[in-house]
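Box 3.1. Reading complex inputs
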Amino acid sequence: MKLKTKIGRPRAFDTDEALESALQVFWRKGYEGTSLTDLTEAMGINRPSLYSAFGNKEDLFRKALTRYAEGSVSFVRNALEAPTARGVAEKLLYGATEMMNDPRNPPGCLMVQGALSCSETAEPIRQELAARRAAGQAKIRERFERAKKEGDLPADANPADLARFVSTVMQGMSVQASGGATHAELRRVVQLALRVFPG
Amino acid sequence: MKLKTKIGRPRAFDTDEALESALQVFWRKGYEGTSLTDLTEAMGINRPSLYSAFGNKEDLFRKALTRYAEGSVSFVRNALEAPTARGVAEKLLYGATEMMNDPRNPPGCLMVQGALSCSETAEPIRQELAARRAAGQAKIRERFERAKKEGDLPADANPADLARFVSTVMQGMSVQASGGATHAELRRVVQLALRVFPG
DNA sequence: TGTTATCTGTACTGTTCGGTATTGAAAGTA
DNA sequence: TACTTTCAATACCGAACAGTACAGATAACA
C-alpha cells in the first residue's frame, strides 16, 4: 500500500525519523500537553506535511504509540520467554528500570505518562492506553498460568494477582522515574518486589 | 484575616463547597485537562467570582491539592502512627485501596493523576506534585528508620528502599485504579506487596 | 518538453483557552 | 434614605489551539 506509483514530488523528510521525533515529544509532554507546534518543530516539518503523512494529532499519537510498543517496550516479549516465572518477573522489572531511565528517552513509560487523566476530547487516547496496559498485563497472567501448570509456580499461587502485582510495580516505577528516581533506586525497588516470587 | 468587616454584599456561594467541586474536577481530568469552563460549571459560579475567591487556575489547583492532602490523604498520618513497620505498611497500602476506590471520588490519587506529563506552562504544577509525593515518601522513610532503631525492622533492612517500595506500589495502584481495577483486585496486590515486610 | 501528481510553505480558518473590564445588584453603615 | 463596599453577571480580550485552503515547487511520466 506504500508501493503506489512514485509519481509526483517526493517527500523531503524521512517519515520514520519524523515519527520518532513525535514519539519523543508525546513521551515527555503527554498527549494533551503536546501541541501541533511542538510536534512540527521537533519533527522539522510543516503542518500540512504532518497531516498528509500521519493524519491528525490522534492518528499520529497512535502511530507513535505503536512504534513505542514495538521498540522500547519490546523487552517485554523477550521477558515472557524466560524459563521460569521468577525469571520472567526479573526480566520484566529490570527491563523496565532500564527502559524508564534510558538517557536517550524521557523518563517513565509512555503508556502511563501519555494520558492518565485528561479532558473529554482526549478520552479515546486515555482508554487506548488503559487497554494496552491491560493487554500487557493479560500476557503476563497467561505466562504465569503456564508456569503454574508446569509446577514452576506453587499450586496456591494466583497468576492473575501476580501479574497485576508486577504490572502495578512497573507502573509505579514510571511515576517514580518521572519524579527523578535514579536507575539504582529503581533497581532496589525491583529487588524488594522480587521477594514475592519463589526462587 | 477572614475576619475583616463584613461590609458589602456577602458571597452568595460556600467557598468550601466550591473548592470541593473544583477538587473533584481536577481529580478526574487532571490539571491541564480541566478548563475554566469545567470548573465554573461544576462549582456553580461565574469566572469573576472564581478569580476573586481563589486567584487564578494554578492557585485554585494548589488550594484543591491542599484540601485533598488534608482530607482524602489524611489516612497516611494515622498509618505512620501504627506500632510496627509492617503495621504502617498495612495501613498505608490498605488505606490507599480504599481511598482510590471510594465511589464518591474519581479513581486513583490526585498527586499521581494531576499532572504526570504536561506542557511547559503546567510544569510548576507537575513539580509541585512530584515534591509532595517525595515528601510523603520521606515521611515513610523516617518512620522506617525509627522502626529499624527500635529493632522492629531487621538490622539489614534499608528504610529508604522500603519506603520507596511502598510508595511505588501505591503509585502503581493509582494507575491501576484509573484503569478500572476493583477494590478487591487492589487488595490482593497489597497482600502480595506486604510479603516484603517481616511479621 | 509539457502534463500530471504529489509535496512544501505561508497564511488563514473557527474555536477554545485563561483571564478581565464593566455594569448593576445587594448588603452594612450612617 | 444616602452612601460605601463588595459581589455577580455579561460580555469581552489577546493568545493559543487543532486543522486547512491555496499557491508555488519538484519529481515521474508521456
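In summary: Residues 5-10, 12, 35-37, 47-48, 51, 56-57 of chain B lie near DNA strand C (CB under 10 Å from a C1').
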